[in-house]
Structures are given as C-alpha cells and as structure tokens.
Amino acid sequence: MRRVTTGIATALLFAGSITAQVRYEDILKGAGQDWLTYSGTYQGSRYSTLKQITRQNASSLVPVWTYHVPEATGLRTSPIVYKGIMYVTNSNAVFALDARTGRLIWRYQDTKAKKRGVNRGAAILGDSVYLTTADNYLVSLDRQTGAVLFSRNFADANKGTMSTSAPLAVKDRILVGSAGGDSGMRGFIAALSPKDGSEIWRTYTVPAKGEPGSETWSDLHEWGGGGTWLSGTFDPDSNTLFWATGNPWPDFSGKPRLGEDLYTCSVIALDFETGKMKWYFQFTPHDVHDWDAQSWPMLLTVPWKEADGRTTKRKVVIHANRNGFYYVLDRETGKFLRGAQLIDNVTWAKGLDDNGKPIVIPGKDPTPEGNWVCPSVKGATNWMSQSYNPGTGLLYLLTLEECGMFTTSSQKPEPMKNFAGGAATEPGGQVILRALDPATGKRVWQYPMTGSARMWTGVVSTASGVVFSGDDDGHMIALDGTNGKHLWHYYTGDDLTASPITYEADGKQYVSIASGTNIFAFALFEPVQQ
Amino acid sequence: MRFLFFVLAPAALLAQHGENSVAPRNPAMKDPNAVAAGAKLYATSCAGCHGPDGTGGRGPNLIHRLESNPLKDDELFNVIRHGIPGADMPATSLSDDDTWRLAAFIRALTGPAIETDVPGDVAAGEQVFWGSKAGCGNCHAILGRGSRMGPDLSDVGGRMPLAQIRESLMPPPKNDPSRDHMLAGKEGVTITLKSGQVIHGIARNRSNYSLQVVDESGKLWLLRMSDVKDLKIMEHSMMPTDYQTRLTSDEMRDLVAYLAHQSLRPRGAFQESAEGSK
C-alpha cells in the first residue's frame, strides 16, 4: 500500500455521498442550488434564485476552473448541475465533472454513432442522465458512475433526422426533438419512457398528406423540415408543452412547396399526455429565408391592460423571432395579442397585422442573382438563451443587427443530398444585448458589442439582479440587470458558443459557460484554504 | 479493472475506429468473406511473429501497436506489402486482393470484439459472468445489472478488441510494466476522513487537492483532500488475476464470448460522417 496522509485537520467543507434522486418536483422548483433542465426552469426563463454574486461584488469574480472537452470544436452544451456534479455534452458524449473543481468523474462516448453533430445538453431525472446521440438514440446513464442503463433508437438517421437538442425531462417522460431540416426530413416531437426509451407518443410538425394542414403544402410533405432542434417549455397548470419548429425545406426555394407550409416556423402547444396539438401560431408563413422559430417560447404572466382600463395579469407565451419581430401570444389559445419590431433593420415586412401575420414587402425572396434582406439568415435572434428576471421585470436577450444576400440555386433540391435550394451570406453585423419590457417588447436598455457576429451565447440572470452573458469577442460578462452597466468581464480566448448557467456547490455560487472548446466556471475570489 | 483503460482512452479508440478505418477505400475491409480469407493468410504469414491472436511473440502485439499508432487502411496495406525497412517486418508478395483481405482481418482482429466471430457459448458465458465462481457482477455492471464500482461493461464488446478482453482476464505480464493496469482512474483506495468515516472504493479521479471515488455500493463521493486524514492506494488492480485457475477453459471461453457479445450497437454499425450544426 502507498499511503498519502494530509496535514493538520481543517474544517470539513464537503464530504458527502450523492444519493438522492432527481424528482419532477425538484425540476419544477426552478434553478437555485442545482440547475436541472436546459433553461433552468420549465418556463424557459433561465432565471436563478441565487444571490451570492451581486451587482456590488461581481467585480471580484475570478475563474475557478476550466475543463477542456476533448475533440470539441464548437460546444453548444448548457450544463446540468445536481448536488455538486456537472454534466456537459459534446457530440455523442457526456462528461460528468466535479462542479467545484472541474475534475472529470466519468465520461461516456458512443463511438459508433452514425452521425456527428452539435449537442445542446443532457437531461436528468431519477438516477439517470439522458443524452441523445446525433443518430437518434436516447441513452440513459447512471448519474454517479456513467454506467449505461439503456440505449434505444427513436428515429431513422437514414431518413435525414438527427438529434441535437437537450432532452426535456417532465414527470414520467423524456421529450426529444429532431434536427436535419436543412437537408430534408420530417420534424417531430416524441415522448419516451425514462425507463427504457420506449415511445409513448409522437407528433409530427409537418402533416401527412390528407391531414389538416397538408393543404398548405404543394409537395414535399415527407421531407418538409420543421425540425424541433431546441428543447421546449412546459406549463404544469395546463399540462401543456410548447415547442418551436424550424424552417421548411428546401430552405431558400419556395417553389416546390407553395403555401404556408404548416407547421414550420411556428410555436406549437401540445397536450403533455397525448401529444395532441392544442394550437399553433406560425410566425413566418412560407419561409424562404431559413428563419427557424428556434428561439424560446417563454411562459410568463405579465401585467395586462384590459380594454376597460383595468390592469390584470395575463398568462402569455412570449417569443423573439429570427424574422425580426417580437410576439406576445395568449398561452391558452395561441391568439396573437401584441407584436413589436425586435431589431432596427427589418426589410422583408412592414410590420405585423392584427393577427400577427407579417405584412410582407414583395420582391424580398431569394433570387438567382441574390437579394439583400434584413435580418440575415442567422436572424434577429436565435437559439441562444433568453432570461426573464421577475425582480427587474425585464427580458434579456441577444439580438443581431445583420443583413445578408439570399440566393436560389438552379439545382434541383434532393432530400439529404444538397443544401437548401440556395444559399445566404453572413457578412457580419453587430450583436446587441437588449433588455425589453416583456409585455410590450419595448427596449429599456441595451449593451452593444464589438465582434464579428459569430457568437452563440445567451443570458442567465439572478435574484440579485445580475445578468451574465458573453460578448461577441469571447468575453464572459456580468451586467447590472437594472441598467445594463458593465460590472465584470473575463476573456476566454475563444468564441462563446453556448449559454451560461449558475449553480451553488459547498455554499459557493458559480457561473459556468461553454466556449468553443472549454467549460469555464467562475466564482467570487476566496484565498486558498491551507 | 483493465476494462477502464478504454473508457478513459476514447481518443485512442476514436483514432483507431475513426473515419479512416470506417470509410475503407477497398470494399474488402468490411466484407466478412474477405475477413475469413484474411484469417487464413494471417495464420500462415503473420501468426508466427505476431501470435495467433495478434498479441505478439517475436514480433510486436498488433492490438497494442495499432491502438497507440493507428494506421489508415492504405497505410496498413503498404506495411503488409512493403514491410518496415530497418525492422524485422518483411515485405510480402501477396496480390492486391489478398493484401486487402489480410488488412481486413487485421482490422477485425484489432477492432471491437463484436465484429469478430468468437468461439464459445454466450448463454453459458452469461451464467459464468453472473455466477459466484467468477463473480464479475460484484464489481461490474451490464445495462444496469451488477455493481457500479468497477468499469461498466455494457459496451465492452463494442469497444474492446477480442484479444484485449482475453488479456483482461489474465494476470498482467511481469515483463511489461506498461500493462500493469493501474492507470489513473481505477485505483483501489481506502480513505479515512477526518470525521473518522472510512470509504473503500475506486478513485475515478484523484489530484493533490480532490478525490472522486465510487464506493463498493456504487455511491459516488466527491472529496477534498483537505477533508482526508488518510488515503491508502492499492498497489495492484482490484481485478482478480486467478481466472485461469478459478474457471475451467470452457468457462473462460464462454465468458469471453459473453463479453464480446456486449455491444450497444449491432455488429456492423460504424460511424459514417460528420455533419449537422442546428
């Protein structure tokens, strides 16, 4: 035996085994010490009740650890944290890290997955961590050891479907989405059993021929896209899931799919028990600019001025869309209540009509020569996280002021063989973090950034009124949520490509974010205890 | 404990079974008939130096060599064709087709066990694995059954070459310290905390400052070294070294067959391509 004996005893800071199970009720509580679901809360608000890091002390933040994810090139993962363990993902892989030190506890990699692709994160429920592989296997791993409990396929990668989104764990189900809409596939959301991955229900986002909504397609139903490549939100009161859907395929060529192309570029409300669609709202009918609706359908209750002058509270779904507009919808019916322009430059539509439909300016579709349109293909915002803070009453989100050239291709679109029936440029623009009044979409403050519009990071905010995000140059930043004032920054040396979270371990609050290649964790400075 | 080597060395695994090896230029590389024909060529041309199962003899162990120094298919072809100048590896005079067949067999030999034909009775091997005589399940798990202290074996056949599975059941060779199987991530430890609590288990990770340990019941402990009064590290792996005497040769064969059969993906599954950004 070798023996390692430590020096004089110090206070026992943390010496515990990790035994409790993650329950639905724990996730329902929202983000505090732990961060148990992609957005921290089922409402999609990415808000944490932690308040150790304040507007007054945020300037004392320091990096505590960095974990380099092997083979990472553009990490999209949003960490899950439970009782001092952090779970991050890369393509077909999960890494369990000691959340206080960044040390690797276990690693799972599916080396035989047929595809590789980005992965946005894991889910946690019971004693399992759930990953979806790029070729559509739901994998259940023992959260303490990484031991495999099952690995089960839920969609055929040979039909264009891939999986990139973080699964959503609700009650006794794991909700999974589908990606691949840029090269032809048929989008769906599926509810799977957390015990063995068996299917409970599946709802397609593009109707089959003859089904209601199929009349909005002239052809290509089977390959129409409508990917569901971002996790969704859940309303426990009405037992309803809300999911955003992606672009119709082919992306830039509308001729093979004349019509509104339901239910692409929409938000859909699904009954949790059956998967049946309760309502839908389509932001961009017959999209030809690849403006997926993959931004958050956030569930808020906002002060509302009724027609008779009374101010009440209203349950709404708010959504900032890639097409340049901001929407407020009734949560129960999906009815359009209010809209606003999200960014300064929108050239494809004059605005929204009373039903929330865009008032389209003719001649803005992609052409063989190219058409210059604002926003660009990357959109006014995108899948990066937004944060609603009940303390400040503000919605924080990253927006992009960028225009681009949209062209069509003479090549015939063939499913899974060529991209999109055209192309679009991303010449560069300005990323601006904006604080909005969520009930109206009106700007309260903004934080413009330098950079080349390559970032993919989002926002998390806390009960102490601090907003954490990343800038377009690779800095992790902290801002005062009330006025946007800069509090702190740290250069990560890389583009930031995923959204931040915050958690607590051993009584210490951390903020964590993935860059292209690394996971970083920050906390307030403390001298090393000897 | 040897099994953990591959769990913690997926970079080597990927390199070995990455794009180059799974997108062969020559169709023989995935053809079972070519692999079978290659096996005969191997027995007559290669086994004399590299051993009948590729684990070496006068010549190097091919499994270890290709794990640490992966070759692309055409590089493997060229080594067989031209030998290694300056070393004992001679050139061959095989036809192109036969050279590809031989390369296909070597790829199967050094690739995951699930891809090879393994002698033995899988069902009988299952009895051995879970029975008290071998007692594998006291430390290892397969799809949630068994103990989670040791490395998970749910995908052992999908990741580990057959020869390496066999090797894992043998005592580490005395003449090869690099095969001591006491790599970081699988050290058996006994920890006494300053609180007086004692924990036995495997240190998944350990530094001068912190410890991540899975105990005998499969519980994970996240510890700071400042909380540890005493840490004893076992000199040898907790993996038993007496299976050759504990089990009959039939039981060993069947156990290997059962382990080789454990794969999360079916035989023939392999990674295709990199794509997908949304």
List keywords for this structure.
heterodimer; A: 530 residues; mainly beta; Methanol Dehydrogenase, Chain A; five-stranded mixed beta sheet; four-stranded antiparallel beta sheet; 43 strands; B: 278 residues; alpha+beta; Cytochrome Bc1 Complex, Chain D, domain 2; SH3 type barrels; 3 domains; five-stranded antiparallel beta sheet; two-stranded antiparallel sheet; 8 strands; 37% helix; elongated; disordered N terminus
Characterize the structure shown.
The complex is a heterodimer of chains A (530) and B (278). Chain A has a single domain, classed as 8 Propeller (Methanol Dehydrogenase, Chain A). Helix content of chain A is 1%, strand content 40%. In chain A, strands 3-37-38-39-40 form a five-stranded mixed beta sheet, with no helix packed on it. A four-stranded antiparallel beta sheet of chain A has the order 4-43-42-41, with no helix packed on it. In chain A, a hairpin with a 4-residue loop joins β20 (233-235) and β21 (240-244). Chain B has three domains: 18-110, Cytochrome c-like domain (Cytochrome Bc1 Complex, Chain D, domain 2); 122-176 and 239-260, Cytochrome Bc1 Complex, Chain D, domain 2 (Orthogonal Bundle); 187-233, Roll (SH3 type barrels), CATH 2.30.30. The interface between A and B is large, with 61 and 59 residues. β2 of chain A pairs antiparallel with β6 (220-224) of chain B, so a sheet runs across the interface.
